[in-house]
Amino acid sequence: MLSRRRFLVAAGTGAAGLAAGAGAASFFERADDPAGDATVPFYGPYQAGIATAAQDRLVFASFDLTLSTRAELRDLLRQWTASAALMTGGEPTGAVEGHPAVPPADTGEALGLSPAKLTVTFGLGPSLFARDALGLAARRPSALHPIGHLPGDLLDPARSDGDLCVQACANDPQVAFHAVRNLARIGRGAVVLRWTQLGFGRTSSTTSTQETARNLQGFKDGTNNLHGDDAKAMSRFVWVGDDEPQRWFRGGTYLVARRIRMLIETWDRTSLGDQEATIGRSKVTGAPLTGNREHDRVDLDLRGTRGHPVIPLDAHVRRAAPASNNGARILRRGYSFTDGIDPASGELDAGLFFICYQRDPHKQFAAIQGRLGANDALNEYIKHTGSGLFAVPPGTRRGGFIGEGLFT
Amino acid sequence: MLPPFYRSAGLLVVVLAIVAAGCGGSKADGPQVLEVSLVNEGCSPEKLTARSGSVTFEVENGGTSRVSELEIKQPNGVILGEKENVGEVRGAFTLTLQPGRYVLSCPTGDDDNQGELIVSGEAVASASLPRAELNAAVAAYRAYVADQVRLLGKGVNRFAAALRAGDLAKAKALFGPVRLNYERIEPVAESFGGLDPKLDAREGDVAEGTEWTGFHRIEQILWVGGTTTGTAQLAKQLRADVATLEQKVGSLHFQPPQLANGAVELLDEVANSKITGEEDRYSHTDLSDFQGNLEGSRKAFELLRPALVKEGERKLVNTIAARFAAVQAGLDKYRRATPLRFALYSELTAADRRTLSQQVIALAEPLSTVAGKVSG
């Protein structure tokens, strides 16, 4: 039987119908998203949160397993999938007002909020496949091997790696936090949080209609990013294809996360000319130094009156360009972060939580970063302090679960 | 939480009417909801009546900043249920009440302004619950509590004797082991309101104008002062407070959900004050307290186990039992052949503490669902 207060919560979003004297059934429908504008479909051939137009906020979590059997892992992935499907649809994971003597099944902080385009994307770390007790070695995706040390890395193990990851993105930070919090809670006894990262603002545009966002250096970031609505490019650079021997992983992709601390104070006292030469673009317009508008061509060959390249040899835009990396491209989906101050120096601990997706992390991200780490002018202003590599399984259909292919 | 709009009185009436119609149940059989408003003078209304059985108390702030909680107590002062920090948000809790008189208390800060709750009707026997198993659990837990308090009394006498004799080494060796009995039943002592602070307050927890007494005051003198001087009066007070506790627990009556919630509260104690090392901050004997909390929690769970099994909750029981074992195994790594029987907490690294914490959290989550299985 419904208690009065529970009824009020259930009826809350249907208040318009109530006032209009509509039929009882409508009292329980959500009225805040009639056209589905606030939801991103959870089910599909690919996981959501990759090709999806980048939402404004991120909560990222990495987990270590405490469970020890395959059956427990399967149960966890099943429960996580079911809960993610509910939450991305704007539903709680369970009753907030259930039995009065029991803690609420869902923690409740997303009640009454819009689903805010929430997506929840799951990934599997290399260490998961190295756990003998799970016997998953034979299912390891072909390119899921640790990236290893890259030039300039100053990685903190407490902010790196993990057996599983969850990327929750939404246009409301509380909705994204609610997702990770409830998944962590559901996983208690099976997994423990290893590290988390909040991203407060998107730095990438991932569709052709999104405006390019600025990162904390004040520059437009990702002007030449891959676009999730460009199916051909996504197939070529992001989705794992039919050449993957692990059949279950076809339609998957690889996520690389890098916590890139920006030396904000140093950057802020760098002249505009040096900032623009470091990036290779105009700070205000985002235009390459060889053009006038943001989307003008990045001409790496153009030389100035004294014969020097207009875009310096160590400019970030040159070093990261596909032309400098054998045509390699990645889908960037990063977020700005701040974690307060560095206790040692009193400087801001802030920067870019870089996330990228690709079909081969070694040929794409690691190859590009290997060159950037060695001779990108930007290195003077950044430190890579955390890193994670995860295989992101393909999507699932209703009734299935993410990672099901590990067990069939 | 509801948007303010839905709290408007007019809509509330409409919705209530629909619930009454929609549920179709006659009011006499339905769940009882008693509304209490907190006002400057205490509870409003001051007198309530109910039928025996499940009663839900809905508490809201009626515009006071002086009163923030509602307690339902037995006449002897034992708190059966309470809702604290009622501010902007309404609160609610549910109790299964037997016929009798209860105290309705909304403490105003100055005095316990007490109202009355009269419950009439038959003694409650819920057909769906395994009554025999639950009654056995409650009786056994009552005996367990009495045992622990008696042992605590004996231990405190030995501790006080060492302090009187000025035997610093002996007093320090007894401090941790004597506390073990208290830690096993800590939530019971806490249910007597003022008694737990007298016995177990930490420095900084004591309200201004109140004297700091109890175990931790003595701990500070022994470890920081390096002396027994100045402990005689405190030891005397400690013995008197433990004697009061012993006397009070004799009249205690438990309900099955209290056992379950007490088991969770003991783990909350571990998570919130032992893992941080703040409980025994001078002696670092926290792991012994941890063991006491864990044993008390496990005892309550083991007593409820037959009832849970009878209800078909075998999977939950197995999960909880396995996680109790995992926490104990984690703690056993720090066993030592000393009077304390454990390593000092200061020996543990941050990573060690985190591992213990994660094991406790993994256990407390499923344990927190037990109360709902053993209440009507």
In short, what is this structure?
The complex is a heterodimer of chains A (408) and B (376). Chain A has 408 residues and is α+β, with helices and mostly antiparallel strands. Chain A is built from 10 helices and 10 strands.
Protein architecture, described:
The complex is a heterodimer of chains A (about 400) and B (about 375). With about 400 residues, chain A is α+β, with helices and mostly antiparallel strands. Chain A has 2 domains: about 30 residues, no CATH class; about 375 residues, no CATH class. Helices cover about 20% and strands about 20% of the residues of chain A. In chain A, the strands form 2 sheets. In chain A, strands 5, 6, 7, 8, 9 and 10 form a 6-stranded antiparallel β-sheet that branches. Chain A has a 4-stranded antiparallel β-sheet with strand order 2-3-1-4. Chain A is globular. The two termini of chain A are about 40 Å apart. Chain B is α+β, with helices and mostly antiparallel strands and about 375 residues long. Chain B has 2 domains: about 110 residues, Immunoglobulin-like; about 240 residues, Up-down Bundle (A middle domain of Talin 1). Helix content of chain B is about 50%, strand content about 15%. Chain B has 13 helices and 9 strands. In chain B, helix 4 packs antiparallel against helix 7 and helix 9 packs antiparallel against helix 10. The longest helix of chain B is centred in the middle third of the chain and has 34 residues. Chain B is globular. The relative contact order of chain B is 0.10. At the A-B interface, helix 1 of A face helix 2, strand 7 and helix 12 of B.
